[in-house]
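#onboarding

Welcome to the new folks! Below is a worked example of what a typical request in this channel looks like: someone posts a single protein sequence, and someone else replies with the predicted structure as tokens. Don't worry about understanding the tokens yet, we'll cover that in week two.

Example request:
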Amino acid sequence: MAPTTNTKKIRKGKPRHRGRNRGVRKRDGHTRAVGSPKPLEEVTNEKKRKPRKKKAPVPIPVSDDPLEKNIPEGVPMPEGYVLVPKGDVYITRHCRSKTKDISKIVYVVYNRTGKRTLGIRIPEEIYTAVLVSAAATKESRASAVESRDKKDLSKSRALLEAEFPFMPADSLQTILEHAFLKGSGRVGRTGMIRDEKKVLLAVEAHIRHVHTPYEDLLDGGVDRKKAREMVRKSILDVERVWQGVQAEQAEKELTLRPA
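Example response:
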């Protein structure tokens, strides 16, 4: 008799698919099928989204001039007016003055943040007349500006030569071309301090960056204020040579001059 093997029949069932019939648990612990509509009580109990708060309008500064009015850029253009963008001082100045001469309002347009002006709105006929005048006087105005710039540069050169008579010629020219460059915004072009102080600050800045290890100190991670203190005596030493000041007098100036 052949031995019999105990073969247990394995019941083959359908594979389980997770997630197909899974429900969504409700607040009371019961579940409902996915895709079925929510009961009315669940819909009414859901948190409602809070409406977004409307941003308050940016405050525009109020003009003290009765013939000027400050407005944001979104305000509709008045009839017969045009926008004169900022940028050309001659055109903007004459448009503003001629509009006030005929007792009309000049609208100063601010951007959406209220921190920067975009231009002015003035009557169109005045803008047209000013454009014609600007074109007719363009060459003469350019010549006058060039003459004035040469005069300012000549004055700065004379001050440098008087204060630092032993300064090398190439250093003097570099300072004039850098610190006193028109439109650079550097110390030589500021109108907030007197000319003698501007000359001194321009020379010190040149010495600091060219004749001391100031740039290397910054590249090495030294704090800007600390680096300036470290090269201060070197700057004064170079100034002393360019001024022709005796050592005793230089030491006295070193203690009196602020850092």
